[in-house]
Amino acid sequence: MSRQIRLMSGFFTVGGWTLISRVLGFTRDIMIAAFLGSGPVAEAFLIAFSLPNMFRRFFGEGAFNTAFIPLFSKKVEGGEDAKRFAEDAMAGLATILIVFTVLAQFLMPWMVLAMASGFATDTRFDLTVDFARVTFPYILFISIAALLSGVLNSLGRFAAAAAAPVLLNIILIGTMWIAYKTGGDIGWALVLGVPIAGIGQMALLWWAAARAGMKLRFRLPRMTPELKRLAIIAGPAALAGGVVQVNLLVGRQVASYFDGAIAWLNYADRLYQLPLGVVGIAIGVVLLPDLSRRLRAGDDTGSQNSVNRAAEFTMLLTLPAAVALVVVPFPIVSVLFQRGAFDAQDAYATALAVSIYGFGLPSFVLHKVLSPIYFARENTKTPFHFALVSMAVNVVLAVGLSYWFGYLAAAIGTSVAGWVMLILLWRGTRHLGIAGRMDDRLRRVLPKIIIASLVMGVAAWAMAFGMQDWLETPTVRYGALALLVVGAGVVYASLIIGLGAMSLGDIKRGLRRG
């Protein structure tokens, strides 16, 4: 049942499916922007949907899986009873989440106030509370789905887990389209689609795990020594996840006092989340079980190679995307979102936030490279301490700068805090063996990637300036944006190959070696 994880092919599998999901996510957000704009229904849904997604950082892909995957992976590598451990973990997780979901129904008004106190004095508050009570059970289904994803990823089977988020976007797009065609309430259509999508994702992954030889059954919860170990490791990770959520809460609280800002930051977040999701999620999903199993086998050299190739892959794809978001955000935002209820003012406000997030993007993705070095060693305390420092930086900047920069202070705080966290993670790896040390190949390639990205940024800005009229003409703006993206991509690829940073042969060899 166990099989060797093929690192590069895993990156491309997860990245490919995540790209499909993110494109569909863009389609979903484009429809939300067109139907609802930045109005009260849009903001109510965005806050209601963010509540279960916030807590999934604790119970889903965040703290729980951070602890579960290394333990499960090592059981797989050691030929131990991994299936029973997964079933016990699922039983404990489901029990906690059922109780939590019931309590949340009663506490929802206070939870909404914690997310967006600026809603308290207008109609958005009651609407958000009603929406959130329906969307919140999503946390139960998506967290069990995340556990099943961890099982599959630890077995080196990445496709089903990476494809599951596609279902969410298909269902939400479908519910909006049906409501639009039938004259229904689009806001409520979105809300009802969320728990339906959670059930669909959980069912898909349950089936995939059964096909992989891990047909998990629900058991009555029991506290075993292994689950105690899981809880001990997950505790600091949950606290670190709490710090991340405080950062998000600070940003939303700041934005809630500026009309439309929650929607602007959400649409900006979607843009920088595209490269972060495609690259960062692929790195995190594949690297953690790979490092866990290599450490169990005592393969320090292989661990260093895995981390360095992950960093190389990350920078190769992320740096040009970050530069593009910084230098040409307005053409991207206006073409993708400006229609219907989303006007030019909304596009301009969103583009400013996109540019700021672009500065932080490389740090956000590199977190996914360095964090597994700690988590694979079952060390969740150190990243928690670093996250506390990052949180302090974010709070000071987001709140303090809001008097001068308004809602943009939230984006500034997020980006600066991201770089602070990265520096702390990198410095901390010095005490964790050779896995976090740069090898000769990365030292040689990284400066070339930086140069190619900067030159591409200049070329993208020049092309956007020259095509300004086309980008503003409704009949040709999609083609103009596609031409801009392709043109910038050709410039970047030519420079990467010309400077000798990477060749097609490198990619083929990486896929063969895994």
3D architecture notes:
Mean pLDDT is 84; it is low at 1-5 and 510-514. With 514 residues, this protein is mainly alpha-helical. The protein is built from 20 helices and no strands. It is globular and about 65 Å long. The protein has helices spanning 7-36, 40-59, 63-78, 82-115, 124-135, 138-154, 159-182, 186-211, 225-256, 261-296, 300-327, 329-337, 344-375, 381-400, 402-405, 408-428, 440-466, 468-472, 477-498, 504-513. The chain has 2 domains: 7-438, no CATH class; 439-514, no CATH class.
Provide the fold topology.
Elements: H1 7-36, H2 40-59, H3 63-78, H4 82-115, H5 124-135, H6 138-154, H7 159-182, H8 186-211, H9 225-256, H10 261-296, H11 300-327, H12 329-337, H13 344-375, H14 381-400, H15 402-405, H16 408-428, H17 440-466, H18 468-472, H19 477-498, H20 504-513
Helix pairs in contact: 1-7, 1-10, 2-4, 2-5, 2-6, 2-8, 2-9, 3-4, 3-6, 3-9, 3-10, 4-5, 4-6, 4-9, 5-8, 6-8, 7-8, 9-14, 9-16, 10-11, 10-13, 11-13, 11-17, 12-13, 13-16, 14-16, 17-19
